[in-house]
What we know:
With 352 residues, the protein is α/β, with parallel strands linked by helices. It has 2 domains: 39-152 and 261-318, D-Maltodextrin-Binding Protein, domain 2; 154-260 and 325-350, Periplasmic binding protein-like II (D-Maltodextrin-Binding Protein, domain 2, 3-Layer(aba) Sandwich), CATH 3.40.190. It is built from 14 helices and 12 strands. β6 and β7 form a beta hairpin.
Amino acid sequence: MTVRTCAAVTAILVSAGCGASPPVPAQPGKPVNVKASSMKEGFGTLERLAQAAKQEGALTVIALPHDWVNYGEIIETFADKYGIEVKELEPNASSRRSIDAAAQLKPDVFDLTLDVAVASAGKFAPYRVRGWQDLPDHIKDPSGGWYAAYGGYMSIGYDPRAVPAPASFADLAKPEYKVALDGDPLRSAAAFGGVMAASLQNGTPQPRYGVELFGRLKKAGQLTDPAKANVIVNWDHLNAARSAQDSESWKVTIPRGAPLGAYHVQAISKDAPHPAAARLWQEFLFSDEGQNLLQKGYARPARGEAMIMRGTLDTEQAARLPAVPGPPVLLTIPQTDAARSYLKKEWARSVG
Length: 352
């Protein structure tokens, strides 16, 4: 099953699926192919891949803010481990901006929302990481163009000193809640996700309900900016990271009935200036070390279930992730497209 159809997906974010058979290993001494579709095919060993990457001397990334899923530590660890300079472009760029700017800025790798990755598949160099078989089939392109590294749930972060824990998105209409989204849902993937989480009806997205809720909040003077809010609707890894800094003033909940989940996927640019470094970066992100570093940033590792079975997942950190009410609802590409079209027509009129 691919994300292109993504029908009736009910797999847990950390669930594993069957993958493709591993490529045939390269023979010792075989020339390196820095544009190969797997490590074994192009390099034979991780050591040869690392050597080729170090010879390139650099890796160029885009849209990786340091406070997003622990990317600051991940970048520093990768650079120190392999002696490779990481050039960071536009850390706060959106997925769409990353793709649109690629021809000019020439990043080696991408971290993208699923819809942008699917729409941009022709821009990627196929590559299957060593942990390919651990990734569920519905979160990877069969050809190897893109593949999810981590996922998360839409959540409600709240100040327990000011308001009780909301049991549902409908609770946010109560007058004590001052609510913020993380940006404009017409531009921000996180804000769009917040509206869609509020729209869920028995596991089905109904964009009208989300727009109506935030319209009521706006009319009542309860929709505000994050600095003034006692509730922020955002991805659970961001709310959880804030809660970890000060659990007395910030807590996080994923409401029952609204378990909206999403994945972020990785890809290598087919025009990557540093193709070996790009492949080494993917191997690092999908290694046990890389997946645990993502989880340290409160993301949910895509290889998590396989790592649990092998005893390589940091279970202490896993226990710190926000509790979830059940399997996630994952929007299909058609559902996402339809919802974005609806918001373009109705958000400004209903919410402003």
